[in-house]
Design brief:
Layout (H helix, E strand, L loop, with lengths): L17 E7 L3 H10 L4 E8 L2 E10 L7 E5 L13 E9 L2 H14 L7 E3 L2 E7 L5 E6 L26 E2 L2 E5 L2 H10 L4 E6 L2 E5 L8 E6 L14 E8 L2 H13 L8 E2 L4 E8 L2 E7 L4 H9 L7 H5 L27 H11 L20 H6 L11
Organism: Lactococcus taiwanensis
Protein name: VOC family protein
């Protein structure tokens, strides 16, 4: 792999940072309640796994669907996963300030959410926490961020004060058996640059760097076991690219490096390519614009936007449904679920109760949910059943 054979990445094609993170949950209902009522993020889209109709796919974002895309599968019958070697270990969420971490530490304590203490990593203040599955997350303060500012703003219907709300995704942690091999892939293929080491953690940044454009490689300890996927673990992480044209560049580049990959995949909400970067570690390159099918819908005048130009700057979640209605009920992109395929998907979903009808309810005056309340709610039962 030489610079002559594989030239440097043109400025217009440099990856923008973390696009989304997709994880596995034991319960679609519980993760919906945890994210909306404790973390203060909105459900931007309720759909199914496009390759497995018996699996829900939930997308959570901040207010405008541009900064904090954390998504979940609920694979039927899957066992609990294990963290460890060859795994994407932890996702991060960005909050505005160090004072925000004080707010969240108190909020997690009151909500009985397992969490650590505020600590510094690479010059940034952070706070680690877990959900009911033992899924690992951290909050990271943007107060000392030197990279690109967050593109998002906190969800306006949340009971989290706007000055402390989650605005985007931060660094993602990856632990592999061969960190030198993954380092080479990050630098040579994806254009990341080394930014420092603290203990067992090494920071790599891309584009403008900072909290939204960073990955952290974690060196495995001698006692670490090998990971395996199940609920409570991360399925894949996605890095962002501008549009379908830049995605084509990345497909060609990844093919040139002969990394195992999917080729072009249209997910409607974005277009993407999946690439295996290490054993057990799956990356995705996803467009910031809506996917090919969504853009075609906009061109045809059948979408919820007024023009193709508007579609280019609108979240893909709100091309087939309006922002005000999205997330309330099952959504199936029409070109991916034609005719009988839509019937099969709706039938499968109907057999798996899930109530998200209150996703656009104003929660600003709500009492704080506890983790116990999240765990008590039965799948599909209305909130009133918990009162």
């Amino acid at each position: 792999m030489t610079e002559t054979i594989y030239p440097s990445i043109p400025n217009s094609y440099i990856l923008g940072g973390v696009h989304h993170v997709t994880a596995i949950t034991s319960s679609a209902q519980k993760i919906y309640d945890f994210f909306t009522n404790i973390l203060g993020l909105r459900l931007a889209k309720l759909t199914v796994n496009q390759d497995d109709y018996e699996t829900y796919h939930l997308y959570f974002t901040e207010e405008d669907g541009k900064g904090a895309d954390m998504t979940f599968f609920d694979f039927k019958g899957i066992p609990q996963g294990k963290h460890g070697i060859n795994n994407i270990e932890r996702a991060s969420f960005r909050v505005p300030s160090d004072a925000s971490l004080d707010y969240w530490e108190e909020r997690f304590t009151k909500a009985h959410v397992p969490h650590g203490k505020i600590q510094e990593k690479f010059g940034q203040q952070t706070l680690e926490f877990e959900d009911f599955d033992g899924q690992r997350y951290q909050l990271i303060s943007d107060q000392s961020n030197t990279g690109a500012p967050s593109k998002g703003r906190s969800w306006q219907l949340s009971n989290v004060p706007a000055e402390h709300g989650i605005t985007g995704l931060g660094p993602v942690f990856v632990k592999v058996e061969n960190p030198e091999g993954l380092r080479l892939v990050l630098e040579s293929v994806f254009g990341f640059r080394y930014a420092g080491t603290e203990g067992s953690l090494s920071l790599y940044e891309v584009a403008q760097g900072g909290n939204g454009a960073a990955l952290i490689l974690e060196e495995a300890a001698q006692e670490d076991v090998y990971a395996y996927q199940g609920y409570g673990t991360i399925h894949h992480l996605a890095l962002g690219t501008t549009d379908p044209d830049s995605l084509n560049y990345w497909i060609e580049r990844i093919n040139a490096f002969r990394l195992p990959n999917s080729g072009l995949v249209d997910r409607f909400y974005f277009s993407s390519e999946y690439v295996r970067v290490a054993p057990g570690v799956l990356f995705e390159i996803a467009t910031y614009t809506p996917g090919i099918g969504a853009l075609e819908m906009a061109k045809s005048g059948l979408g919820q936007v007024d023009s193709y130009e508007e579609a280019l700057i609108t979240s893909g979640f709100w091309i087939d449904e309006s922002k005000e209605e999205s997330g309330k009920q099952l959504s199936l992109p029409p070109h991916l679920f034609p005719g009988d395929e839509a019937t099969k998907a709706r039938t499968a979903a109907a057999l798996r109760p899930l109530d998200t009808s209150d996703t656009m309810r104003d929660r600003s005056m709500d009492d704080l949910w506890t983790l116990e309340r999240v765990e008590q709610r039965k799948a599909g039962s209305p909130i009133e059943a918990l009162e």
